[in-house]
């Protein structure tokens, strides 16, 4: 469908309805309504269009999920076919569906060795709720029911249900709901700009940051600790790429105390880091017991999430567990599973994951790094198809802007104006583009980001803020 074939949209009327009736996630509704929401009406490849016809490169893959890009007829066909044959059936009462069975087998093919089982949910948040249930059930079955505590990290994002928000380490979320729930505690994140010591190498910082896990385990008593959970690269926290020394040391500590390791791969899974799962990237290199996934499993075309269950937990659950009293009406939803199958097959048959590793991600890394010569920008880094940089007030002295100035939001707004979606997280500006981005599209995206940095700097100068 060409843009010209689309019906015209009455932007003002849509904005008015949205403002009158729609409460947006993670949004200050009053200030949104004053400005009016941008109405997105179409997507094709790595681009989206708004109702006023502006073309925008989607540097965030929607919300970290549209890994294959927009407009994939094969995914549409898979959904259409399944909806005609059997739009829905459940998996509760000794029944399954063809797509749920086929996808389970397909996921075990692409997962790291030892992952032969999957539990389906509708989202990453529900996946992490399921993680808590699985972890505690496992230790019950091991005769160690006192092992209840899950350790996570400040500034982690694990979702927005009560349990997933508790696992996450977002203080703004904890404040609005008396979180975390009991049995969850947090250590500091491996973010050197915040926690590094002067003159400390990245390697030494990574080891020291991992050591915070061991200190916490010893403080709590190892026999009380059930699991550690982390994102291979923190996404919503601002694309925090840990030093290469960090994850292997975390793995060593988990092994030493017999603690389960959970890799939240809701962002890093399905090729985002150039491997099927982020834990397989040499920079991460862990052997988790559970893997949470969502987002990229369907490239966002339909909602689906789940947990890949490693051997030791699966065996306990199946051989000793009896009923596992947990599940969702839409666990293994056949239409969502059908789209996931088409998505995984396309990622595989088109060599997308491999191309990210050998071509697209290295090219993005080189081009993104050039942004660090901009007077506002530093620490421009990427891993696979996620990247982030820091907005500095004075790069040489490494001083940041006063948070009240909202410099990141100014930059984000300039990005939108210049036709690229880039996200602001405090001092960091981040991207996670579709995995299918070409070199030309990367060049255009970087040029638009650079122009937005220029515009942000000019604005700050005009207001006498720099
Ligand atoms: C988005 C996200 C979640 C939550 O997934 P939802 O589908 O929004 O519930 C969990 N973990 C990570 C790492 C995420 O990025």
Protein topology:
Blueprint: H1 11-21, H2 29-35, E1 40-44, E2 47-50, E3 55-57, H3 61-64, H4 73-85, H5 98-110, E4 115-121, H6 124-141, E5 149-153, H7 162-167, H8 171-175, E6 184-187, H9 192-195, H10 202-220, E7 225-230, H11 246-257, E8 260-264, E9 290-293, E10 305-310, H12 311-320, H13 334-349, H14 352-369, E11 377-383, E12 386-394, E13 399-400, H15 407-417, E14 423-425, E15 428-431, H16 439-462
Parallel strand pairs: 5-6, 5-7, 7-8, 8-9
Antiparallel strand pairs: 1-2, 2-3, 4-10, 9-10, 11-12, 12-13, 12-15, 14-15
Bound molecules: pyridoxal-5'-phosphate (PLP).
Largest sheet: 7 strands, mixed
Bound ligands, named by name, code or SMILES = pyridoxal-5'-phosphate
Mean pLDDT: 97
Looking at CATH, the homologous superfamily of the largest domain is Type I PLP-dependent aspartate aminotransferase-like (Major domain)
Number of domains: 2
Provide a descriptive summary of the structure in words.
The structure is a single chain. By secondary structure, this protein is α/β, with parallel strands linked by helices. It has two domains: 145 residues, Aspartate Aminotransferase, domain 1; 276 residues, 3-Layer(aba) Sandwich (Aspartate Aminotransferase, domain 2). A seven-stranded mixed β-sheet has the order 4-10-9-8-7-5-6, with helices on both faces. α11 links the parallel β7 and β8. The longest helix has 24 residues. Pyridoxal-5'-phosphate binds next to α6. This is Putative aminotransferase.
